[in-house]
Specification:
TATA-Binding Protein, Alpha-D-Glucose-1,6-Bisphosphate, Chain A, domain 3, single chain, globular, 3 domains, 34% helix, 8-stranded mixed beta sheet, 13 helices, alpha+beta, 23 strands
């Protein structure tokens, strides 16, 4: 029997759903998924005070090969508790949340079957209520309950819904309202990475008059044969950048598998991802939120910080990695009266307060398309909104593997000691405030920059991110860091060689 608690991945459930990869045994089996379905209904009934027989749960999935059997299993668990199921079929993660709040639908809860950009043999579950996505603590409670369940392998019944048609109509309305002009004459390339985002080309942009004929990889295919469905993946970005240039498009939009992340490409072929997508997402709505706060993850650049605060006149709070961490911090600030209008990770998870604090890649894409349409009338491209953003001369990430037997203790010791080391080392200074790991500014022989050493969210790894304003700065600071880390047993330093 599988240890069901090991399926927790922060605020999601993820595991191995299909055989075929050596050394990776299936742990998302039918029994585990039925248990989780029953446990979710139990948790939701306690949370809402609503009887299980009065609840209706929407279930959808992305293009993964294991989606159908997992959908059947989760619905068996939901039905076993006496709740109704509604099958949304192929859809996006943000649409699943919207199924709980959109008029006519207003489901009691929703389950999205997805593992985002992970390999083809993986899959996972994301859960929603009208209040938003579940937190880590909620998933722990559900899995703890699931451990106690002895499921009945029953059949299931499900209604059908046209959720994606309604969601696409909602997005078309958003573009029309923001653009204040037609998309006729606009050439837009959409790259769905063979995930669930192909609808954006033919159900959102094309009905508004855009030419989407240059789009690629719109057909759902869980083998992901063309590139990883991930806006952060270099091959994926290179592919859409090339496509935008060869088709003469005005704009490119790329999604991850389940469309909760996106990035863009300017008509020049310039990628707009990571720090650039953070800058663009903020610039799109800065005028509507003067002096507002943007919450980001911990690895955003100094140049981005300057752009947000000096060029856009906003406040920038650099918080922790993990999209739920960033979103929850933004919600906390908003509840305290601060205009925290945007929470965004460099991964492309962007959640606007005006959109339920929901990380919705299609919503961000709509804002980008609308702005691009307006700018085209002025003879400008979308990149003009972030022209003042500077980039570091160098950027590098090094991932140091830790001894799996006691990686937590090793990582904690290295981080605790680093604070003292920085304070006695010339050319180094601690960044304050700081909410994750140890972030250090360096000024060494004319090379300025920063580095951040932190513990991985899930793996026995110490990631080290470094950026320098001058060429050669990384080569100056890395030997210093390695010399410090040598004192700790259980850290593999070979990744820096």
């Amino acid at each position: 029997m599988n240890d069901i608690m090991k399926l927790q991945n922060g605020s999601d459930i993820r595991g191995i759903a299909l055989p075929g990869v050596p050394g990776e045994d299936v742990n998302m089996d039918e029994e585990s998924i039925i248990k989780i379905g029953e446990a979710f209904i139990f948790w939701l009934s306690l949370k809402t005070g609503k009887a299980v027989f009065d609840m209706n749960i929407c279930v959808g999935h992305d293009s993964r090969l294991s989606a159908e059997p997992i959908k059947e299993s989760i619905m068996k668990g939901i039905n076993a508790m006496g709740s109704r199921c509604t099958d949304a079929g192929l859809c996006s993660t943000p649409a699943m949340f919207m199924s709980t709040v959109m008029p006519f639908f207003e489901f009691d809860g929703a389950v999205m079957i997805t593992a985002s950009h992970l390999p083809w043999n993986r899959n996972g579950l994301k859960f929603f209520t009208p209040e938003g996505g579940l937190d880590k603590e909620d998933i722990t409670k559900i899995l703890t309950r699931a451990k106690t369940i002895h499921p009945v392998f029953n059949t299931y019944e499900a209604d059908q819904t046209n959720l994606m048609e309604m969601y696409a109509a909602h997005l078309r309305q958003l573009i029309s309202m923001k653009a204040k002009t037609s998309l006729k004459g606009m050439k837009i390339v959409v790259d769905a990475g063979n995930g669930a985002g192909g609808f954006f080309a033919h159900q959102v942009l094309e009905p508004l008059g855009a030419d989407v004929s240059g789009s690629q990889f719109l057909k759902p295919d869980g083998h992901f044969p063309n590139h990883a469905p991930n806006p952060e993946n270099p091959e994926a970005m290179a592919s859409i950048c090339s496509r935008v240039k060869e088709t003469g498009a005005d704009l490119g939009i790329i999604f991850d598998t389940d469309v909760d992340r996106s990035a863009a490409v300017a008509g020049t072929g310039q990628p707009i991802a990571r720090n650039e997508i953070v800058a663009l997402a903020a610039a799109l709505e800065a005028e509507n939120h003067p002096g507002g706060t943007v919450v980001t993850d911990s690895i955003t650049s100094n140049e981005l910080h300057d752009f947000l605060e000096k060029d856009l006149g906003l406040k920038h709070l650099r918080f922790r990695r993990g999209y739920r961490n960033v979103i929850n911090k933004s919600i906390e600030l908003a509840a305290a009266g601060e205009d925290a209008f945007l929470a965004i990770e460099t991964s492309g998870h962007a959640a606007y307060a005006d959109n339920y604090h929901l990380d919705d890649g299609a919503y961000l894409a709509c804002l980008i398309v609308a702005a691009a349409a307006r700018l085209k009338q002025e003879g400008k491209g979308i990149e003009s909104l972030i022209s003042a953003l500077k980039s570091p001369a160098e950027a590098r990430e090094i991932r140091f593997n830790l001894d799996p037997a006691n990686f937590a203790e090793i990582g904690t010791a290295a981080l605790d000691g680093m604070t003292d080391w920085v304070e006695i080392t010339d050319g180094l200074s601690l960044e304050q405030p700081n909410y994750e790991g140890v972030r250090v500014n360096f000024d060494l022989d004319g090379a300025n920059g920063w580095f951040l050493l932190r513990k991985s969210l899930h793996d026995p790894v110490l990631p080290l991110n470094i950026e320098s304003e001058q060429e050669g700065g990384i080569d100056l600071v890395v030997p210093m860091i390695l010399d410090y880390l040598k004192q700790f047993d259980g850290i593999d330093l070979s990744a820096a060689e």
